[in-house]
Design brief:
- The protein has 9 helices and 14 strands.
- By secondary structure, it is an alpha+beta fold.
- Helix content is about 30%, strand content about 20%.
- The protein starts with 6 loop residues before the first helix and ends with a helix.
- GO terms for molecular function: metal ion binding.
- InterPro entries: Inositol_monophosphatase-like (IPR000760).
- Its cofactor is Mg(2+).
Length: about 290
């Protein structure tokens, strides 16, 4: 076992840098100029890329290399980064050899279109599961963090970790969010739930909830085609630490992170209550018979 810093120590050390990155992203949002798309895809959520993505990642990379040079690190823009080669690895390692990941602007399309519900998401991964995650919402002056088996917390950006309060959502909106490429479930679900389909309902003019709506109470459940560890999977972990139910589409427990391919959990169902979760899983099974 490596003599690694604790997940809490990593979060506490990086929080001032994440605050600065949040202030930077908020400051330049109105004047941001988009760089070329990352790759050819019809997923406008995935292909959007801005100067903020690259700058935030570089800033956090410098902080990590300065404070924790032996940690593994995977940044979403690792192929474009000047710093990737200085990290020991970008891959998930053995148990207790932590991998830090970063989505420098989760919801880049939202960010480019001037919407407030983009985030900076940093996670700490172990071979078996998430150790920690932190998600900053610069435009909303809010951040959330979760530590393994310790719950999820919320605070203002100026708050230190110990100043944050446990996150409790008493009455989330009774809405199910369908992530990208899950719109085919809409017909089966619509008779039972109010839906938001991010692919069909996205608007440049009016913001709709993103996956982070599960932490704000804007939605009660989220269905994802895959749960990328750096973003959707991280938010699902935070919801689970808050007390929400989480599983694969068929209701089965999620596999160890090391047993997944390409940094993804399989399709996810996250719901505010166990009864809602069971109903969603049952409906998904009907929509996609085994």
């Amino acid at each position: 076992m490596l003599n690694s810093p604790s997940p809490r120590q990593i979060l506490a050390t990086l929080l001032p840098y994440l605050r600065t990155a949040a202030a930077y992203s908020r400051q330049i949002q109105a004047s941001i100029s988009a760089r070329p798309d990352k790759f050819d895809s019809d997923n406008f959520y995935a292909t959007a890329l801005t100067d903020a993505d690259l700058s935030v990642q570089t800033f956090i990379e410098v902080a990590l290399l300065g404070h924790f040079p032996n940690l593994r690190f995977f940044g979403e823009e690792h192929e474009k980064s000047y710093n990737t080669g200085y990290f020991r690895s970008i891959e998930l390692g053995p148990q207790d050899d932590f991998l830090v990941t970063l989505d420098p602007v989760d919801g880049t399309r939202l960010y480019m279109d001037g919407h407030p519900n983009y985030q900076i998401i940093l996670t700490i991964l172990n071979a078996d599961r998430f150790e920690a995650a932190i998600a900053l919402s610069p435009a909303l002056d809010t951040y959330y963090y979760a530590l393994r088996d310790q719950g999820t917390f919320r605070g203002a950006l100026a708050d230190d970790l110990e100043d944050c309060q446990p996150l409790r959502i008493a009455n989330p909106e009774p809405i199910v969010l369908l992530g990208w490429d899950t719109g085919h479930f809409a017909e089966q679900l619509r008779p039972h739930f109010e839906l938001i389909d991010v692919k069909a309902d996205y608007s440049q003019e009016t913001a709709i909830p993103n996956v982070n709506g599960i932490l704000t109470g804007d939605v009660s459940a989220v269905i994802l085609n895959r749960g990328k560890f750096i973003d959707g999977g991280a938010l699902a972990f935070m919801a689970q630490e808050m007390g929400y139910s989480l599983s694969a589409h068929d209701g089965s427990p999620l596999p160890r992170l090391a047993d997944c391919e390409a940094g993804d959990w399989p399709g996810l169902v996250v719901a505010a209550t166990e009864s809602m979760h069971q109903q969603l899983v049952s409906l998904l099974r009907e929509a996609r018979p085994e």
